[in-house]
């Protein structure tokens, strides 16, 4: 019976505490829910774009690319002077992008003594606008990499019908 007396004491203390502090607990809970709801509305209407990103590779180099990553999100491979392959989905954000790629070799290049090489570069990540969920990664000769956002499969650096085909001002 001692157990039940202690249980009744605890129950009485909880009831007294709730009678004294109940409205403050309810107000705090309501404030938390309204704050969270306000943040969700702000993030969905005025916040920065977020969400999954599709990586699209474009290679202009004479070696195949075995694989690459942008800020830890893995991308596809590509043949020499190839591309257009995609991988989905990862989250890429921040002001800079760390691009790591592995250069593969053809049979002829192997016979000439070339071997696998891993390269790394840190470059500014272009600003992402709402609706732009495709990150195009262009590998150019001389270990140069171009990044560009788009809202479709066309790269901002490629010519295609129906557009003015101008390069972004920062890349001219």
Main traits of this protein?
alpha+beta, four-stranded mixed beta sheet, four-stranded antiparallel beta sheet, 31% strand, transmembrane helix, membrane
Number of strands: 8
Record the strand order, biggest sheet. 4-1-7-8
Query: What letter string, H or E per element, gives the SSE order?
Result: HEEEEEHEEE
Tell me the helix content. Answer: 25-40%
Strand content: 25-35%
Instruction: Using the CA coordinates, give the radius of gyration.
Output: 27 Å
Distance between the termini: 85 Å
Count of discrete alpha- or pi-helical segments spanning 4 or more residues: 2
Largest sheet: 4 strands, mixed
Give the CA-based shape. elongated
Structural class from helices and strands? alpha+beta
Average pLDDT score: 87
pLDDT under 50 segments (min length 5)? Answer: none
Keywords: Membrane, Transmembrane, Transmembrane helix
Pfam family, one: DUF3304
Protein name: DUF3304 domain-containing protein
Organism: Rahnella bonaserana
């Amino acid at each position: 019976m001692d157990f039940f007396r202690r249980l009744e004491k605890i129950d009485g203390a909880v009831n007294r505490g709730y009678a004294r502090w109940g409205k403050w607990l309810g107000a705090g809970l309501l404030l938390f829910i309204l704050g969270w709801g306000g943040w969700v509305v702000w993030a969905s209407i005025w916040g920065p774009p977020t969400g999954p990103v599709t990586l699209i590779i474009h290679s202009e180099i004479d070696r195949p690319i075995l694989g690459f990553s942008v800020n830890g999100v893995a991308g596809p491979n590509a043949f020499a002077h190839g591309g257009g392959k995609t991988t989905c989905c990862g989250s890429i954000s921040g002001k800079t992008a760390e691009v790591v790629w592995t250069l593969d070799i053809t049979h002829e290049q192997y016979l000439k003594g070339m071997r696998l090489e891993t390269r790394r570069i840190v470059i500014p990540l272009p600003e992402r606008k709402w609706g732009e969920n495709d990150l195009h990664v262009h590998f150019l000769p001389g270990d140069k990499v171009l990044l560009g956002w788009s809202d479709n499969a066309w790269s901002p650096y490629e010519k295609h019908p129906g557009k003015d085909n101008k390069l972004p001002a920062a890349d001219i």
